[in-house]
Amino acid sequence: DYKGQLRTIKEMGLPGIKLHPDYQGVMIDDIRYMNIIEYASELDLIVLTHAGVDSGLPYPIHCPPDKMRKVIDKLKPEKLVVAHYGGWKQWELAYEYLADADVYFDTAVTFGYLEQEMFLKMWEKVNKEKVLFASDSPWSEPAMALSKVRELPISPKEKDDLLGNNAKKLLGIL
Predict the structure, then answer these.
(1) Which of 39, 106, 109, 121 to pair with 90, CA 20 to 30 A apart?
(2) What pTM value is reported for the model?
């Protein structure tokens, strides 16, 4: 009863849900996920999904950038957040398939793993108003991620947006 569960989440005042295709053993472009994402979007809920490799789980990767792009193109969700800057350890593919997509990206477990050059390459292509700071603690140290953002050669406004203003807009508190 995914619709009932999503309505309950909405009625509770929660802003959204998280999907983890690898833990759930379902490909992101499976009709079951498509239905969940579509209905959550109808309810104006945020949908955050793990993307890319999960080091603790075996292959296949259940949310690779190419499959995520199929979901985006078909459903056009307004509040979809693709974790790990489009796909952990699949950043070249994220650049190829997702950087120009109209979705949000979080930076969970990105800094310290992704080279700054690749981060900036993607940064030039993404909608900068839809990139959200995240650390994914305990797998990544928030202080280290914050220091890496402060070192980026981007404008002070872009840093402020990345570090909180974009999230506030998504959550409707700015």
Answers:
(1) 39
(2) 0.96
H-only helix segments in 43-104: 65-75, 91-97
| C-alpha to C-alpha distance for 64 and 162, rounded to whole angstroms | 24
Tens digit of pLDDT per residue, the chain (174 long)? 999 999 999 999 999 999 999 999 999 999 999 999 999 999 999 999 999 999 888 899 999 999 999 999 999 999 999 999 999 999 999 999 999 999 999 999 999 899 999 999 999 999 999 999 998 878 888 999 999 999 999 999 999 999 999 999 999 997
Half-sphere exposure of 95 (CA within 13 A, CB side): 14
H/E run at residue 46: strand 46-49
